[in-house]
Amino acid sequence: MSECRTFLPELVSRRDELLRALRECANLMRGSLISVQVRCGQAGCECAQGGPGHPKTHLTVNIGGKTRTLYVNRNRHDEIAAMLDSYRRVWAIINELTEINLALLRGERSAPARRKPRTLRSR
């Protein structure tokens, strides 16, 4: 247990660092960007003759068990990608904070009382 207590100041320091990073996070959102190939429907287009479709990007987000899909214009792609990256960073910070706080809680509690060994009773 004494070895664990030597790491407590390091854990507290790392926790404070993560909390600062969490406060500095930018706008965020959960979801995924997906690329799809679509056909435009114009008879003279190459995609109508079986050629490759036109690349489009969509944002998908599951809200309340329902998947929402939104077309992403090219000039908004980077903005949305940055929000998705920020969400992933925040989620990673939250997971690390959870591990650190759990370790701190375990390190602060006193050693558990030892139980008496069980003895087999004869009937």
Would you kindly provide a written description of the structure presented here, covering whatever features stand out?
With 123 residues, this protein is an alpha+beta fold. The protein has one domain. The protein is 44% helix and 20% strand. The protein has a three-stranded antiparallel beta sheet, with helices on one face. A hairpin with a 2-residue loop joins strand 2 and strand 3. The protein starts with a helix and ends in a 15-residue tail after the last helix. The mean pLDDT is 86.
Q: Which series of helices and strands comes N to C?
A: HEEEH
Strand fraction equals 15-25%
Question: What is the number of independent domains?
Answer: 1
Query: What structural class do you assign from the helix and strand content?
Result: alpha+beta
Low-confidence stretches: none
Distance between the termini: 41 Å
How helical, in percent, are the residues?
A: 40-55%
Overall geometric form = elongated
Number of helices: 2
Query: Average pLDDT, to the nearest integer?
Result: 86
**Main β-sheet, spatial strand arrangement:** 1-2-3
What is the number of strand segments? 3
Question: Largest sheet, described in full?
Answer: 3 strands, antiparallel
Rounded Rg: 27 Å
Write the layout of secondary structure elements.
Blueprint: H1 2-23, E1 32-38, E2 54-63, E3 66-72, H2 77-108
Antiparallel strand pairs: 1-2, 2-3
Helix pairs in contact: 1-2
